[in-house]
Every structure is written in structure tokens, then in C-alpha cells.
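Sequence and structure are kept together here, with a separate record for every protein. An example record follows, reproduced without changes.
>
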Amino acid sequence: MKANLKLTVAIILAGCTASNALAQPVKDGGTEFKANYCIKPTYLAEARRAGVEGYTVVSYFVDTEGLVKEAKILKPSGDSRTHELLDRQALRAVKACRFRQAVGYGMGTIEFAWRLTD
């Protein structure tokens, strides 16, 4: 459980380019790996203008070298084309993560919250 918390902390990327929007992991489904590096997902201007919010759940598979070899959307943030764009940003962010080298393979999930703030 402690490794899961460290992973979450390591990839919490508060805020995005706009001060009135957040795109961050809010829940990590667990892995034995610890993140060395992850990028911040971009809350696209088009989505902000449209007022699009939601949650994207991404599953990922990490190899023994700490690279994300596979990632996919388990739960999209919504049904619109704009939601799909946000989902792609979450997927892109997870695929760019680099984890510490591990003894075995690992799998996990991350839930990203897309929220407009005041």
C-alpha cells in the first residue's frame, strides 16, 4: 500500500496551464513501481471553453525497465468529442511516465479528474 501512495504522490500534477482548471490523478489503482517521471496532462482550451468536466480512468502495464509498454482507457470522461480529446491527453500522460526499474512487471490504474475551478 505504501508504494501505491508514493506513486500517487509522485505523479500528482496539480493544475494545468490555466489557473481555472485542474487535470490531475485523484486515485491510483496500485502498482509495485514508483514513478521517476510523469508529464502533466493538458486540459485543452477547447474543453475549458465548452465547460467539459469528468473522470478518465487509464490502466497501464510497466515492464522491468520501468517503461509503460501498454496503456488504455478503462473509463472515458464522457461521450462527446471534447471528452475524447481529454481522454487522449490522460493516455498520453500515462504513456510518458517512467518508473524505477523493478524485478517484475507491474500493472496499475490511474483516475484523472478534469474539473473547472473558480
